[in-house]
Design goal:
The chain is α/β, with parallel strands linked by helices. The protein has a single domain (about 5-260), classed as Alpha/Beta hydrolase fold, catalytic domain (Rossmann fold). It has helices at about 40-50, 75-90, 105-115, 135-140, 150-160, 175-190, 220-225, 240-245, 245-260, and strands spanning about 5-10, 15-20, 25-30, 55, 95-100, 120-125, 200-205, 230-235. Strands 1-2-4-3-5-6-7-8 form an eight-stranded mixed β-sheet, with helices on both faces. The longest helix has 15 residues, at about 75-90.
Amino acid sequence: MLKLITGRVSNGAASVVYHAGGAGPAVCLLPSRGRGAGDLRALAAALVERGFRVLLPEPRGIGGSTGPYDGADFHDLAADVAAVIAAETAEAERIIVAGHAFGHFIARTLAADIPDRLRGLVFLAAGGATWADALTRATDLLGQPGVPRADRLAALRLAFFAPGNDPEPWLDGWHADVAAGQSAARHRTDRETWWHGGTAPILDVIGRQDPFRAPDHHQDYAREFGGRVTLRFIDGASHALPDERPTEAADAIAAWARALG
């Protein structure tokens, strides 16, 4: 069983709750838009089993974390994560930051802002350059109150879960206000200040059934960032990849991290 301690750090007006556990090289895991760190607990447990220390910050507005979204940009949200890293790792330690879907934007911003602390970046189910409008509508529906359960399950199956995987645990855990704040933060942030993600090596982990990353977009980041990028594919996974296939995701991260030296 995964044993985590819970801590809290401050970043200006923000107060950030985080969970930490394990021993070894540090991996910080960041959840997707409008969702909390609980989605990443199975992946965290698998990484601890493979000899890593895990850090799981909760976004503002989730899990006890507080802080304003009004006026906030990606750099503010990345600074929340940086405060957790500073509290839980040695100053000279370089860490891996793995972001799920929207979380990989914050990981990239962090890598741009504190490049000397980053050993590597992991993109977990990062979207491609474009995707179908129906997927955006499905994601937006999940954060709305009063939507019938059957419609929510259909949205989860369309956008997040591969055939045969159970979407029911994701009926809960949506925070529409947080999702709106995170989206607004993206619009406030100059893309040129974070998109590059510093200079850290990148592991791009793609679910074979992820509609946000259709096959013609599998090479998007490899084309843009060249030799920094290592591609790994996981079958039986869609956009909820780290929750659908945590063991396989942990294996991919562990093997890549060890190869970094």
